[in-house]
Amino acid sequence: MKLFLIGMMGTGKSYWAKKLSKKWKVGGYDLDFLVESHEEKSIAEIFAEDGEDYFRKTESRVLRWFGEKKTFVLATGGGTPCFLDNMDWMNKNGVTIWIDEPVTVLAERLKPGRDHRPLIKDLSDEALLQFLDNKLAERSSVYGQSTYRLQGEAISDEGFARIIKQHA
Ligand code: S3P
């Protein structure tokens, strides 16, 4: 079982990676966290000090570690699939699941923790919604290359279980 969880920031990729890894007894990982550990800096610091290009290169490099792993569930970053051939690579090296929540839900979830997220930290509530709308429109064609897409009630233990049973 090699699962890559993809989707916009705020969709719960990290939450689900943790939950699924416990339930299915496989290693659960978070790509943002691995990048932060590797760089010994927060994502916000990497963006501010080294720039987004550097972050994307590092993210892509750390993602490739999963080529060696036999079984895992990995929460990727919201932008991961959209840079440096990462989507193709994930589809060749495992199963990709797009967690697709509406932008209104994402905006509500993201409002409180904006400071830690470099792409949205300076946005007003209204601008945040607009930003998410634009980003999703921009990224949908890449997210849409995923093996599975979960929406609504399918974003649940049962929804994931249906997929996992086919790949365990
Ligand atoms: C990003 C999403 C973040 C993080 C970085 C950039 C994006 O991950 O990788 O701030 O481009 O959407 P989460 O989706 O885990 O918040």
The strand count comes to 5
| Contiguous uncertain segments of 5+ residues | none
The total count of helices amounts to 8
CATH architecture: 3-Layer(aba) Sandwich
Cα-to-Cα separation, first versus last residue: 5 Å
- Bound ligands, each once: shikimate-3-phosphate
Element-by-element helix/strand order = EHEHHHEHEHHEH
Largest sheet: 5 strands, parallel
Q: Structural class from helices and strands?
A: alpha/beta
Integer tally of domains: 1
Which shape, going by the Cα principal axes? globular
The average pLDDT is: 95
CATH-defined superfamily: P-loop containing nucleotide triphosphate hydrolases
| Cα gyration radius (Å) | 15 Å
Report the CATH topology name: Rossmann fold
In what order do the strands lie side by side in the largest sheet? 2-3-1-4-5
Binding site for Mg(2+): 14
Binding site for substrate: 32, 56, 78, 139
Keywords: Amino-acid biosynthesis, Aromatic amino acid biosynthesis, ATP-binding, Cytoplasm, Kinase, Magnesium, Metal-binding, Nucleotide-binding, Transferase
Cofactor: Mg(2+)
Any descriptors?
168 residues, alpha/beta, Rossmann fold, 5-stranded parallel beta sheet, globular, binds shikimate-3-phosphate
What does this structure look like?
The chain is of the alpha/beta class. The protein has a single domain (about 1-160), classed as 3-Layer(aba) Sandwich (Rossmann fold). It is built from 8 helices and 5 strands; from the N terminus they run E-H-E-H-H-H-E-H-E-H-H-E-H. Strands 2-3-1-4-5 form a 5-stranded parallel beta sheet, sandwiched between helices. About 30% of the residues are buried. The model has no long low-confidence stretch (mean pLDDT about 95). Shikimate-3-phosphate binds next to loops. Belongs to the shikimate kinase family. Its EC number is 2.7.1.71. It catalyses: shikimate + ATP = 3-phosphoshikimate + ADP + H(+).
